[in-house]
């Protein structure tokens, strides 16, 4: 018996050694290929710089999206498509930084979700700079101090980021891309709170709804109290020894609460959406979205007139958001996202038709759909 | 002339298309190889799990260090060794996470340098959990709630992190690795401060020294005032319209200062060192360091007796740090780092000799030298 065990161990050991050798061989091949790729990127930069030393652009959002989409389509496994795309994002980021690192301004401070989104979209080699306010991100991009900016636009728990929307109305910036981050919810309480003594749980109503199953299973007797925001929930819990909050990690740090249980959301689709903004328009990648601001006069049938061209030309609207007009002259302002690129014929027809009925139509940008 | 330009453009265009095709082909090959690598890692996990379902360990610090060192030695360029190693770190991180993500506790909050160090060492796929204090990181590791912990140990500006050293004395945790992060210094001031009006610059003395050349060249007329810490410098500047501070990015956020100029340090070797801690000892990688705590009685020749064995057996000491003994019984406690692994003969001889003269010798761990 002992002998048999030994034989199996020896067999295992030799298989492990063989696998290790194979991994080393594969790594050597990957090393050569990444180096070849970096050499190609070097040559691309040379050609572009020779053609236009002043305005050579090395980073093309549509090209990156195409590469990632192609990689995911051809991915044989076992790694998930998202993981493989993230690896290629880093390979592209390293190759690009070898030519010229991308400089990006984002809504700071450091350590926020917007910084995470910046790295997710541009890779670890990006040079990112935190800005204290959304308009300052816009300003840095407009002034040419950075190539791109990253701002939050939509949170599945708290809705749209109105300040970002409003800034688009008055700015000449283009949307060049989008990126989503998954946001986790945690149960948190003060350091002296015992889990079995918790009788009240505060959170935003949507967060409570998102964690309902977990709460039913694990805290069935605690009262659930909806408050205005998750940050307010965390703040309230500070003064109460028998209550807990459901909120994001940042709130636990801000209000010095301990995380009792991580990731208590029932479904993992709680996400925040960010936009990449830049000075240049982005060509079609083959899988694009377009964002518009449309002003409509406040008259009967305005919304119907707005929606009609999309239906007529078969353009798929993915978001419609209305905002009070800042000029206050009795118009509505709508933010619209739809599938397609302004270079496509049905999109052009839709826009032409919209322009006939709307007070104003402003294309914020066509850009590749968020890849990972 | 115009015609000639056109021909060049067409030639450039066709070369760019060719390069793009070549990059696509290379990407396809990299995709296949990474997938093969992930399959090998899957098989390694199967074999290990079959042999020991309870204690199978998928992450081996010494093996990772060997892979990275081999990659850097074989790197043909043009990417820098550090960039290539970072890419392979991510490839390993993704393959490992496909089997079982590593869970790591670090000194929080999120967004700190310790989190950056955690991601640098374990890659983006690590599951990391912020802890409010250094001893809690130790406790999580000891309790088995996480596999590894990451704590700061040394800052080239502000010296050693004594709290981490002290925790090692009373803990049974092993050091499994080290990682360095480069820290940048910035010139910062309040939002109403004009750069040409700055007459005073506050910072820690070491930071002022590190930025001396930059200050001589760009702010020759501003008075330099040394204060206790960079954070204090930033705080002082808050109330003064004609002064600036040199400090890290976090200080600018904490005290709402604008960064006037980034990376003003003269040499880029301003770094902070972090330790990876775990429950298991790490085998030799071929390029290792060992950390010790040695207690010596307060008697004549103690320091000489401490140093002698290292010299005798040719062991290269890289750091010697003395701390007051916490037990207060008239002994000195020394923290020592040296090059080598406890499995090496000269190291074993050194330790045996040390044990004859020292009151106590505790090996904190042998671990691979920080690779990137």
TrEMBL record, chains A, B:
InterPro entries: ACT-like_dom_sf, ACT_dom, Chor_mutase/pphenate_deHydtase, Chorismate_II_sf, CM_dom_sf, CM_II_prokaryot, G/b/e-P-prot_chorismate_mutase, Preph_deHydtase. Its EC number is 4.2.1.51, 5.4.99.5. The keyword Mitochondrion does not apply. Pfam families: ACT, CM_2, PDT. GO terms for biological process: chorismate metabolic process; L-phenylalanine biosynthetic process. GO terms for molecular function: chorismate mutase activity; prephenate dehydratase activity. Pathway: Amino-acid biosynthesis; L-phenylalanine biosynthesis; phenylpyruvate from prephenate: step 1/1; Metabolic intermediate biosynthesis; prephenate biosynthesis; prephenate from chorismate: step 1/1. The record marks 272 as: Essential for prephenate dehydratase activity. It catalyses: chorismate = prephenate; prephenate + H(+) = 3-phenylpyruvate + CO2 + H2O. Residues 10-103 form the Chorismate mutase domain. Residues 103-279 form the Prephenate dehydratase domain. Gene3D superfamilies: 3.30.70.260, Chorismate mutase, Periplasmic binding protein-like II. GO terms for cellular component: cytoplasm. Keywords: Amino-acid biosynthesis, Aromatic amino acid biosynthesis, Cytoplasm, Isomerase, Lyase, Multifunctional enzyme, Phenylalanine biosynthesis. Residues 291-368 form the ACT domain. It is found in: Cytoplasm. Catalyzes the Claisen rearrangement of chorismate to prephenate and the decarboxylation/dehydration of prephenate to phenylpyruvate. This is Bifunctional chorismate mutase/prephenate dehydratase. It comes from Reinekea thalattae. The lineage of its organism: Bacteria, Pseudomonadati, Pseudomonadota, Gammaproteobacteria, Oceanospirillales. The gene is pheA.
């Amino acid at each position: 018996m002992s002998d048999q065990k030994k034989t199996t161990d020896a067999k295992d050991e030799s298989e492990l050694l063989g696998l290790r050798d194979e991994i080393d061989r594969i790594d050597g091949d990957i090393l050569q290929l990444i180096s070849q790729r970096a050499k190609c990127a070097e040559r691309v930069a040379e050609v572009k710089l020779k053609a236009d030393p002043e305005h050579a652009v090395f980073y093309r959002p549509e090209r990156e999206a195409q590469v990632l989409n192609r990689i995911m389509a051809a991915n044989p496994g076992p790694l998930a498509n998202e993981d493989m795309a993230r690896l290629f994002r880093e390979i592209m980021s390293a190759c690009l930084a070898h030519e010229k690192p991308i400089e990006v301004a984002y809504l700071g401070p450091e350590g926020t979700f917007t910084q995470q989104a910046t790295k997710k979209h541009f890779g670890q080699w990006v040079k990112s700079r935190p800005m204290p306010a959304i308009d300052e991100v816009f300003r840095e991009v407009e002034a040419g101090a950075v190539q791109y900016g990253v701002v939050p636009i939509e949170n599945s728990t708290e809705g749209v980021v109105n300040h970002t929307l409003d800034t688009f109305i008055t700015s000449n910036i283009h949307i060049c891309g989008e990126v989503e981050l998954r946001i986790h919810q945690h149960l948190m309480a003060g350091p002296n709170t015992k889990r079995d003594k918790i009788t009240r749980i505060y959170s935003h109503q949507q967060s409570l709804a998102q964690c309902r199953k977990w709460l039913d299973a694990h805290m069935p007797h605690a009262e659930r109290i909806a408050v205005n925001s998750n940050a307010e929930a965390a703040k309230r819990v500070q003064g109460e020894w028998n209550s807990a909050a459901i909120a994001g990690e940042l709130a636990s740090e801000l209000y010095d609460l301990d995380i009792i249980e991580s990731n208590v959301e029932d479904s993992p689709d709680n996400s925040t959406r960010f936009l990449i903004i830049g000075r240049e328009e982005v060509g079609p990648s083959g899988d694009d979205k377009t964002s518009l601001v449309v002003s409509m006069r406040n008259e009967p049938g305005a919304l119907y007139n707005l929606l009609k061209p999309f239906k007529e030309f078969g353009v798929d609207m993915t978001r419609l958001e209305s905002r009070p007009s800042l000029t206050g002259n009795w118009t509505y302002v709508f933010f619209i996202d739809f599938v397609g690129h302004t270079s496509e014929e049905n999109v052009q027809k839709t826009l032409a038709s919209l322009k006939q009925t709307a007070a104003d139509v402003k294309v914020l940008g066509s850009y590749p759909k968020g890849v990972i």
